[in-house]
Specification:
This protein is mainly α and 480 residues long. The chain is built from 22 helices and 6 strands. The strands form 3 sheets. It has a two-stranded antiparallel sheet with strand order 1-2. Bound molecules: arginine. The site of arginine has 10 residues, from α7.
Length: 480
């Protein structure tokens, strides 16, 4: 076991830290999750120190060997992080020094834990961001697959939780996909903005040693070194943007989870959730509950909390580094775990949806859902919309007055009294035009519910999934 000395011991006023304060400040229980990225960062840093002549070749070589050995052990799960270390950076340096002696003591030249932790966080966020994007692609694929089977599955579309106009299940599901596609884009945008390497910013003002920031940036797969050393060590925008993207994912999933709960309940009874995604009750043997969908809904709270935590922790924080920033990691780790867990559960939920096609069709048929279409028929014949709206309303009222749900029972005189054009078309033709299938087919526009339009959208989403997966495995091959 390495000696757990403080990296900063011997500095300043002296005296040793009170044990209670030391325990309060320790972050090792949280930031040991950065172990692998910390080692990768140190490997690049040590190589650069060697290449720039700051370390002699043998010291740089010894560091490289020592760090790679630690990395292999970390990956194999055989490296046991000392829980008494102050943080992961201290642990690695102490362990390296215990193994290598003076070579280990040479590693921190031209570097501070402040730029080191900023680097580690960015490397960790980059991998986390990719995992989330991959999980979003899985959800998109699940949605597209279910949608393809339900292009013609009529269901009511709602506003204000009131039945409004018929749509299809495919169209509703593709609305979920649209939100998740934006989430994918939001994560990509955050990733692109975080693509600057903090190494070399030092404690806050860089270093007088002739380091090569371009070289470490390149070696670690970043587009460039960061622009300002003070900003670099104090900035946690990448954490905020990541947590915001996670919170938006969680918000979307909470909406979808709520809809699944509604649809699975007896009042809607639009779907059944198969046994792999619903639970029983410990007391009521007859029950089947949508617990996983409820938990997806409920997890949003902690995700929003993490975002507010990160923003509040940085509010009013002066430049450059302050220890407050240590609080960033717990929030981003939890945002990641929550978003990833929820996305995986959500994809399983989508795969386990069993639509009750007849129930949905029945719910979409009543309620004069054709009223807007009645007005649009008249607009098609040259009437101003507001006049047509009045006539359509009168048509609904004529039906209601006779206790009818459809126009089919209205005679020619009743239709003519509402508008001559309706009489000319005739009750039977109007009724056919007002069938939910016809109402949906008539909405044949970009973004609309007509089956042909949804089919095109499904193909586009599946293409996107394939393309993004290809780009992901290409990045993995190149190791960036
Ligand atoms: N554990 C610290 C953190 O996560 C590392 C940086 C410590 N820097 C310092 N100046 N005390 O922020």
């Amino acid at each position: 076991m390495a000696p757990s000395s403080k990296l900063w011991s011997g500095a300043g006023a002296g005296g040793s830290l009170a044990p209670a304060v030391e325990a309060f400040m320790s972050s090792i229980a949280v930031d040991s999750r950065l172990l692998e990225v910390d080692l990768l960062g140190s490997i690049a840093h040590a190589a650069m120190l060697g290449d720039c002549g700051i370390l002699d070749r043998s010291t740089a070589g010894a560091l490289d060997g020592g760090l790679r050995a630690l990395l292999a052990e970390a990956r194999a799960g055989t490296l046991h992080v000392d829980p008494a270390a102050e943080d992961v950076h201290s642990y690695v340096e102490n362990e390296l020094t215990a193994r290598l002696g003076d070579a280990g003591r040479a590693l921190h030249a031209g570097r501070s834990r402040n730029d080191q932790v900023a680097l580690d966080l960015r490397l960790w966020l980059r991998a986390a961001n990719r995992s989330l994007r991959a999980a979003i692609l899985d959800s998109l694929e699940a949605i597209a697959t279910l949608s393809r089977d339900n292009l013609a599955t009529i269901m009511p579309g709602y506003t204000h939780l009131q039945r409004a106009q018929p749509v299809t299940l495919a169209h509703h599901l593709l609305a979920w996909a649209a939100a998740l596609e934006r989430d994918h884009g939001r994560l990509s945008d955050a990733d692109a903005r975080a693509n600057e390497c903090p190494l070399g910013a030092g404690a806050l003002a860089g270093t007088s040693l002739p380091i090569d920031r371009e070289a470490t940036a390149l070696a670690l797969g970043f587009a460039r070194p960061s622009r300002n050393s003070m900003d670099t060590v104090g900035d946690r925008d990448a954490a905020v943007e990541f947590a915001a993207a996670c919170a938006t994912v969680a918000m979307h999933l909470s909406r979808f989870g709520e809809e699944l709960c509604l649809w699975a309940g007896p009042e809607y009874a639009f779907i059944e959730l198969d046994g792999s995604i619903s639970t029983g009750s410990s007391m009521m043997p007859q029950k089947r509950n949508p617990d996983p969908a409820e938990l997806v809904r409920g997890k949003a709270g902690r995700s929003f909390g993490n975002l507010v935590n990160l923003l509040t922790m940085q509010k009013g924080l002066p430049l450059a580094y302050d220890r407050d920033l240590q609080e960033d990691k717990e929030a981003v780790f939890d945002s990641f775990d929550t978003a990833l867990g929820s996305l995986v559960a959500f994809a399983a939920l989508v795969r386990g949806i069993r639509p009750r096609v007849e129930r949905m069709r029945e719910a979409a048929s009543g309620g004069f859902a054709w009223a807007t279409d009645a007005a649009e028929i008249l607009v098609g014949r040259g009437l101003p919309f507001r006049t047509a709206y009045g006539a359509a309303k009168a048509l609904v009222e004529a039906c209601r007055a006779q206790g009818l749900e459809t126009v089919e029972g209205l005679d020619a005189a009743a239709l003519a009294a509402v508008h001559p054009a309706f009489a000319e078309i005739g009750a039977a033709a109007l009724a056919a035009r007002f069938e939910p299938e016809a109402l949906v087919a008539a909405r044949d526009l970009v973004g609309g519910p007509a089956p042909a339009r949804c089919a095109v959208e499904i193909d586009r989403i599946l293409d996107l999934v394939a393309r993004e997966r290809g780009a992901g495995s290409d990045r993995a091959r190149r190791g960036v």
